[in-house]
Amino acid sequence: TESSAGMLALGEICDRRTDGRTITRGLRTDGIATLLGPVFGGFPTSAFAQNVGVVSLTRVRSRYVVAAAGGALLILGAFPVLGAVVSLVPMPVLGGAGIVLFGSIAVSGIRTLSEAGLDDSSNIILVAVALGAGIIPLAAPTFYAGFPAWAQTVLGSGISAGALVAVVLNLFFHHLGTHSRTAVALKSS
């Protein structure tokens, strides 16, 4: 869910249409990277939303810049002295950068929501309930304590809880609900 959302946000930032094929290719690449990370002694990887914020702020969209940054990270990893120099960046500087990055991610999300047709009441309900479901694990971490373990795993993450609610409500309002609305309209005419 998080990787797909990042791909959609990057597509909007870069003015490129993000279709199902593009997301499939991105998820496949993300999966391959996750498999290869531990082979080289690293951790499984994931696409991070912070990168969406960096692209949004800098407007640098070149894959060559990404490759150069990857090369710089490899060099930093190969020479611990260089990594130690980078670790000298003061925490307030990192905190300030984090606020700007995460704020820009929120703005990307708001921009996406503004294109969702929020003049329709069903879309307003969908967004409101999905946001609420996503906030519950943060606001009340023990809210799902009485649920079965599998439900706690799914609903305990704000991202997965919000995404699950959004998908279910989208199906209900825009796919299942459409047929019943049409049937009611036909019966009344």
Automatic annotation (TrEMBL):
Membrane topology field: Multi-pass membrane protein
UniProtKB keywords: Cell membrane, Membrane, Transmembrane, Transmembrane helix, Transport
Keyword Transcription regulation in annotation: no
A GO CC term assigned to this protein in UniProt: plasma membrane
Cellular compartments annotated: Cell membrane
InterPro entries the record matches: NCS2, Xan_ur_permease
Transmembrane segments: 64-87, 93-113, 125-144, 150-173
A GO MF term: xanthine transmembrane transporter activity
A UniProt-annotated Pfam family: Xan_ur_permease
Similarity comment: Belongs to the nucleobase:cation symporter-2 (NCS2) (TC 2.A.40) family.
Protein name per its UniProtKB record: Purine permease
